[in-house]
Structures are given as C-alpha cells and as structure tokens.
Amino acid sequence: MNAPTVVKPAKQAYVVLLAGIVLNLILGVLYAWSIFSQALIEQWEWTSSQASMPYTLAVGCFALGVLVAGRLQDRFGPRPIAMLGGLMAGSGVLAASFATPTSTLPAIVGFGVLGGLGIGFGYAAATPAAVKWFDASKKGLITGVVVSGFGLASIYIAPLTAFLIEQYDIVLTFRILGVAFMGVATLCGFLLQNPAEVGVGTQANLTTGHSLKDMVSTVRFYQMWVAFACAAFAGLMIIGVMASVTAVQVPGANLGFLLVAALAIGNAAGRLIAGALLDTIGATRTMLIAFIGQAIAMCVLGFVGALAPLVVLAVFIGALYGANLAIFPALTATHFGTATLGTNYGVMFTAYGAGGIFGSLVAGALFDLTGSFQPAFYVAAGLCIVAAILAPFAGKRIAV
Fold this sequence. Notes:
This protein is an all-alpha fold and 400 residues long. It has helices spanning 10-27, 33-44, 48-76, 78-95, 105-131, 139-167, 170-191, 212-216, 219-249, 257-280, 283-301, 307-336, 341-348, 350-370, 374-395. The chain starts with 9 loop residues before the first helix and ends in a 5-residue tail after the last helix. 58% of the residues are buried.
C-alpha cells in the first residue's frame, strides 16, 4: 500500500535544505588542503609525503565518520550528530595549528583524524535530513543540491586560506579557520531535523527502509559498492595529485588556486547536473555518462601540456567525479529506502574511502616507478570502465 502524501511545510523544508548546503560548504575544507600542503612544503620544508599525509588520513576518516554517524543519525536524529561533527571538524583544523616545521603529528591527528571524522559526521547528517523533507520524485535533485555545497567549498576556502597565510602565517590561519568553521558548522547542525521530529510526514520520509543486514545480503549492494569505489579512485586521485601533474606537464606554471577552483566548479556542477539527470533519464544512463566520461578524461589527461586545456579538463574531471556524490546516495535511498538511509549510505560510503586511499597510494607509487603519471591515469580509466560495466546492474529499476 502506497504511503500517503502529506503536505509539507515549505519554509521548514528549505531551512533544512539551506542548512545542509552551508554545512557542506564548511566541511569541504577537505578539498582545500592542497593550499596548506603547498605552504607547508615551501615555508616549513615538509616533504611531499609529510604534507599529503593529513589529507590521505582525512579521506579515510571521512568515510569512517560517515559509516559511524550514519547509524547514529538514524537513531538520534541529524541535529546532535551534525553539531558534534561541526565541533570535531573545527577542532581538528584548530589542532593542526600546533604543528611545527619539525612536528607533523598535530596536523596528522588534528586535520587527518579528528577533522576527517568530524567532516564525516556532518556530511552523514546533512543529506538524509534534507531528502526526507521532499517528495520521492525529487530525491536526485535534492541530493545533488545538498552535496554541491561540499564541491563548491574550495572556491572560497582556497583563496581565503591563501590570503590568510600571506597576511599572517600558517599557524594563525589554522586557528582562524578552525574557530570560524566550528561556530558556523555547529549553528547549521542545530537547524537540521527530520520531519517526524516536528510531526510532519511526506511521501519521501514515510518510505520504509531495508535493514543493513538486508542491504548487504543483496548482490546489488556489491555492484554499487564496487562501481562507487572504482569511480571514486579516479576522481580522488586527481584531486590529490593535480598540482604535481601540472608541475610535470606544464613546467613553470604556477596554477595553485586556479586548478583547485576549476576542479571545485566542476565538482559542484557535476553534483547538481547528475542529481537532475537521475530524476529525468534514470540512474543507468546517468552512471554511464559519468563513468565513460571519466575513463576518456583519464586517457586524455596525460597528453595535455598547456594551461588552457588543462583548466578545461580539470572542470570536466571535477564534474564527472562530483556526479558520483549525487548518484550513490540517491541510488541508495531508491533501492534501500529513506528510513535507514543514514546507516545504509554510511556503509556504501566506505567505497569512497577505499577509492580515495588507494587512488592516492597508486598514483604516488606508479610515479616513483615510472617518472610519469600516465600509468596511474590508465589504471583509473580501466577502473571507470569496470564501473560502467556494472552500471546497468546497479542502476536498473530506479524510480524517475
């Protein structure tokens, strides 16, 4: 029997939606780490490995945080989990300020572990809360809108970070951003709530959900997980090494923020576009566009040796990567229900962590062996083809 459609209070629905977007705009500090990394290498003479370790750990802890917080927010609601995430994320950035030229541990533990977990807690609460306020037919669009904030974050965080480092220093920049992020993220978390908490129901939030045990017992879950991991491998690998790729392929070019901004614009646009496509052309076609497009981009990237086409390609890669962050939460909600979305997507999101960690490690290892990033690009392209092969099985019968 179909769940009844109940008129939702538009004002409260959009308050939750806006709070989720702004929260993700703060949590997206993860993607601006390259600015800190560059400063740590140039000013404190950290090695590339030392400077990249907080980011690598943050990606893994981000996925772990989503896994843990997804279950907690299903049980306790999004507000306390998001507020805790905001406090942890801001505290992690603040803790990184105690690093020194000879001590990397505060940055590793602060930004990498505490910050990564906090980002995961906040991220896990924002999307499920927003999706439950809107009709099921808008699942893809609402997901894309909320997660676009995460992709857009580095557009303002990157130049702001660069400005603060130039005006002050690395330590004070960590402290300013840490305190500011803690305050804004906690406020946004306070505004998140489920419709049921205020006695409101909609077709979407009354949808039943499969238990975690039921989800992981299906073949479809593993098809989705592998596809997500393969696609995330390519995108996160490029985000982590784009500055190095530029230095190798366009010698003498000082791109820094420009490439970060290009990836960010594409990242946000891809989430919005994919969210809309899910509701119109369906999941399978949307995934095929994203995965095959990523494979082609990976093959082309190694041959780009000029600034302008590299910027264009960065936008394109960012968009195809960002599409995954709209596709998979919406697909999880569609196949396994919204009532248990926090828990189930938390488990699904471990694919993102696996792809991000291995993408970074493989890129570095292959470059050390060959002196070129091309082998890593081809590995990523191959994995995107695997994801494309799985797409028809993972995406069939999605509601549009």
